[in-house]
């Protein structure tokens, strides 16, 4: 196979209608096997047979239609360079010529010129025609190309309207239409570029070069020359260029542009770092783990670019509506131009002019742009705050959900056991109890043991652990060993059964003899009621204390649950844990609806049950273990997916950091986006309908149609959509 793929950035694409026209034009080119235009990123991906077509001919074809191309990796900067492009220059010249023509007409000083083949023409008319040439130069090329293929696109309709105005001698109208539509296209492109700004900022986060150590020497290399396993040198104030793992150095790294975290994250040897993040303080040596095209940031950008493939229901509705709307209005315009003069003998020029106004109103540009610009604005804004939405359909669906389901472990909780309580008895101190337990548990790899050792190292690190001798693992019970020649035990409370009263001995809540025993039993009962795992510490002769270990709930979880309920959502927790543990976590977080003992297959069944009972349901999980349940829900939301490729691929929406507080923001953003989309669609249709009615009695002129129906409506819906970019997490 000699098939090749070319990705090109397109300039001059102002709305979704332009994108459709370009896609069809490129797809018809001989040798092209597939063409896909992405309006949200203003790019085109073309697959073609190299034996039939080459890049130069492809670019020539696109530019002959009326667009400008460049490689996708080149600096974008649309909002900065837009006004320096040839389109802007020609529009400016068109405006100047139109103004000069109007000035001559107003003052009455309008000399006559002799033009080709003896024809005479007033100077103002010449200026108006010059204004038409410069104003319509770019969109008329696109329109005529589409007309040759019998396509009634936006550019075609505007071109026909201008030609019609010239035919009936309405030169001022023709020049005004050319100039105003050209201005409208520039303003639309500028507005859409603003909506794309967040995505461009993400792309710019990654440096184009990185400092690499090779053979003991430091070299600056482009990213595509750097392979996994090589060592990056990153100094304070520099951005990390590639994903990797810290080999040497300690520093704080600002991950806010990717995860939305407001506080820099401390990094030490062994920690993961990600491309695009900022090294703030220290010197770091980093072992590269991914190529430039495979970094987490590159995947995020790619997924946002591909989000347009998942169109929202509103966007599909607009596309279907426009297919019937434009031909219908064109037919009405044709009837308006012919029927009154043929049937009633009305002046042809007057009704033809009204038909041209209908031609302008038939352009569905404001309608076609109303939904995608809203989605672009919302998705790129969310990405800036560490939330990845993989399509407009998920954004719109999320705005309609009634129920949100959480997995417990690793979602509402940290998924990592930690020590919550250290209780000393019989004259010992909490520090002594923790020191003995940590010394013995340092010989074990059990998660509870690791939690105890970690607690000791974080809080009593200045006291080294004593040496352990005669270490023995007591299968299913705990461990024992000698410290300074004395035998100690750490494990389940039953390990101290010989201290229990036979009449009071129960498997989970033992009662020790005497007053001290009653106190320990009370502590034990309380800790177990809080769904904590309790470890007893003692000697061969007596217990010394209790250590409680639990999977901690996330600090923001309770507030997130309350905010979601205030938003009118039903919050449900499902977990494979036992009833006591799940009930305790639910009570702690204020969750009224929960299910315990639910296996992975059961989670899918539970989601399906909730879908039947409550309609649309969102599921929040870790994106890997909960993948089936996420797929079963209306919208699957994975959290903490930084560096987790599987979670990025499987989730509909991803929270880049382990931060549940982004969920209320996400719900509010999706609801606002739905409202904005509805407002834009309603406004566009009502504006066109109202102007259309005003054409028949002559209230709406050609200029008014383009000022209000095209330029005004497009700017209004774009400005309304850009409000979504200002919604921030609170």
Automatic annotation (TrEMBL):
Entry GO CC: plasma membrane
Domain HMA: residue ranges: 4-70
Transmembrane regions listed in the UniProt entry: 88-109, 121-140, 152-168, 324-344, 356-380, 681-708
Gene Ontology molecular function, alphabetical: ATP binding; ATP hydrolysis activity; ATPase-coupled monoatomic cation transmembrane transporter activity; metal ion binding
PROSITE patterns, sorted: ATPASE_E1_E2, HMA_1, HMA_2
Keyword list, A-Z: ATP-binding, Cell membrane, Membrane, Metal-binding, Nucleotide-binding, Phosphoprotein, Translocase, Transmembrane, Transmembrane helix, Transport
UniProt topology in membrane: Multi-pass membrane protein
One family name in Pfam for this protein: E1-E2_ATPase
SUPFAM superfamilies membership: Calcium ATPase, transduction domain A, Calcium ATPase, transmembrane domain M, HAD-like, HMA, heavy metal-associated domain
Cellular location(s): Cell membrane
InterPro entries: ATPase_P-typ_cyto_dom_N, ATPase_P-typ_P_site, ATPase_P-typ_TM_dom_sf, ATPase_P-typ_transduc_dom_A_sf, ATPase_P-type_domA, Cation_Transport_ATPase_IB, HAD-like_sf, HAD_sf
The family this protein is said to belong to: Belongs to the cation transport ATPase (P-type) (TC 3.A.3) family. Type IB subfamily.
Protein name: Cd2+-exporting ATPase
Lineage, top ranks: Bacteria, Candidatus Bipolaricaulota, Candidatus Acetithermum
